Morphogenetic protein
Amino acid sequence: MSAPMVLANLARRKTQTRRMTGLKNIPEGYEFVKMFFTEQIVKGDELGIAIVMLSNGSNQICIPCPYGTIGDQLWVRERLWNDGDGSWLYGADHKFLPMDYPEGWLAKVDHKRSIPAIHMPRWASRIMLEITNIRVERLQDISWDDCMAEGVLSTREYGYTAYFDFRREKYTCSTPRESYESIIDSINGAKAWDSNPWVWVVEYKIIEIKGGEK
């Protein structure tokens, strides 16, 4: 996750995330039909899976959710550094935490460079989540309450409620929706909001923050 979204999780004000993976190439004319939850057998093990069905009236598309299903656990990736002595500096809040790591792992790390979030190993993650619900919708269908659940910041410092613009890094937005739009464009690039793609809406609860309250 981006640093602002990591901070939102650490503050426990973020309980949803919207992702486009697997839904980017749906042809025009298809609309949401339903979500269903089932099991599949993988190497002899029964695994839960969430699937969305979309239809254009004559044809149907079924797409499995790449993030799992209700009850599955997710771990949050973020940028970090190693100090060469077994402690890790987490980029979002610049906090040092000691972490157990696999033997020989430190020898592979360039201590002068950060480890990008995409390359963070699971054992280094400090935030664990559990999926509580999954659905699919258009990005711009997000509600006011869901914008807040995505980690939007607000303040009344100026005598009225203003919301944080994550592009300009100022409290210049007048609604949670406008603030959430700035989150999307700051992460996915300009016009990401305007394209109004299909997204997975993954709702979750935080089950562990290493170095913080459970």
The helical segments are 3-10, 144-149, 176-188.
